[in-house]
Amino acid sequence: MLKNLFLTSLLFSTLAGATTYQTVKVDNVNIFYRAAGSPDHPTILLLHGFPTSSHMYRELIPRLATKYHFVAPDFPGFGRSSQPTLQEFDYTFANLTDLTEKFVNKIGLKKFSLDVQDYGSPVGFRLWMKDPSRIQAIISQNGNAYEEGLSPFWADYLHGYWKQRTPETEAKVRKLLTLDITKFQYSAGFRNANSVDPDAWTHAQEILDRPGNDVIQLALFYDYQTNVKLYPSWHAMLRKLQPPMLAVWGKNDPIFSFPGAEAFKRDLPKAEIHALDTGHFALEEEGEKIVSLILNLLSQNVR
User: Catalytic site residues?
Assistant: First the structure.
């Protein structure tokens, strides 16, 4: 009897944590998203980075979905979401944010926490600025919001492009779309690059290699400078509202350096800052530790 009850409970927990794969149309853009957990539980909106998609959260979601409700969309031009042309969609971070806001409204999210990484960070912070009352906590996984976090990588590849878009500056930026750089993002700073599932960087490169995707990425690279200009307004709002914050960082990240995580303390003295001995996509090597830290933050701050 007890054994049967245990097996029934285990089966229920497994099913509750199962990920579903769905698509919804928002402003004529098909947005693919992963979801798991009961909508009756607190929701976490997971916003991915470049050049990946919601695929980066594939292992985190089922580990937490018995207690929380997860939603992880792919931005347009990424993952399994549609890829409208530049004529059909203006690829700016402001527009990614507007579309994400319409997406969460369409699927009925009212309040939620944010988990952001890389590109997901400026989209998440812009979304938070639109209506801070909806956001219950912020989790940053190498999701930068401070100039201290912009490593020399940005000066090497993007500062010239931001100053003037020419064939010469574009040629340098186009290197960021190559397989070598994608592998670099999944290996630099990792304790053991061989522990990273090659499906992770293969998936990311397949996105970049789709016909027409290069000009989309170039547009977003150029527009990224608008995020940096917004940093002071984000900092002012953080100081004012003091949201629960966890910054868990691959401290060896060659793109967003660890001082960017430490800088949150300047505006959020109670923020939790954790340096992990890994690289840019910390979930690939430190998933178990990150899950534990997220559970701790949410259990203390979200009901």
Answer: 280
